[in-house]
Amino acid sequence: MSLLSFCQWLSQTPLSIWLREAAYPFPVLLITHVISIALFGGMVVMGNLRVLGKAMRDVPVSQVIGQFRAWKWVAFAILLVSGTLVAMSDPMEYYSNVMWWISLGVLLVAGLNAAIFRYGVYRSVAAWDEAAIAPAGARRWAGVSLILWITMIFAGRAIAFF
Amino acid sequence: MLLAYTILQAHPEAIPLNPIARWEWVFPVVESIHICGFTLLVGTIVILDLRLLGLRLLRQSISQVARDLAPWIWTGIVLQLTTGPYLFSGDPYEYVQIAAFRTKMILLLLALIFHFTVIRMATAPSRDSAPLGWRRPAAVVSLGLWVSVMLAGMWIGNL
Question: Which domain holds residue A14?
Fold first, then answer.
């Protein structure tokens, strides 16, 4: 089954029809989605700014990143569930929306970037935990993350524009 | 906001000349910056409030966390108070009639007042060694106010 025929099938399911036609599910889901982005993104961005030496320099890097990990995962789970439901409300529309695909792509790249940071340079965090500015190797990933997050917000907002 | 409204009321001919009213791509671009701003603001406020609740960053004193976050809270507020009124300037007569917009303005005012009075007192260095006490509910109120501002803000577009 191709992705297109999957979307066609999905858009005819009772859940998809309900999400699309009832008055409240869509705005509620969209608002939940944006709030979870702000929560998740906000905490990620503060971690990035700390690594870059632009925020909370008195607090060890591992504290700014590690202490909020559970909160980030919760916000990310809400983001994923609400985002999936929003997409399910009109699969055919999003299937042909280039900005939707760009948003998803940027999210995947950001995830990959975070994983490379976490299981790469971050393993040696003990050596630069107290440093006001992290080493260049770590700053690079944080800078990329920051740019990806801004791109994601612009692309996400643009979904409704296209 | 009031300033923008007063200016536009005195010069109604300025509205169609405003880039946000002339080109349809200006609004989503400025709105995206507005969303980046509130993402930043939420990130900083959540960190501060979780500290005030005694849930996170316990090795740092409250006043230190507040001092560290202050420049970014200010950046967020300034970003929001420039992009917000600009979004408003595109169609001011429409916005003032939307209940969600008026609710948002009241909540925003309350959130700002609360932040610069109660939260400022709660994060004073002289209180660092005192028990958290009333500062826990204050953190909950702060979080509730900022989230309500966002909720009302997003609802503007749905009505």
Answer: 3-159
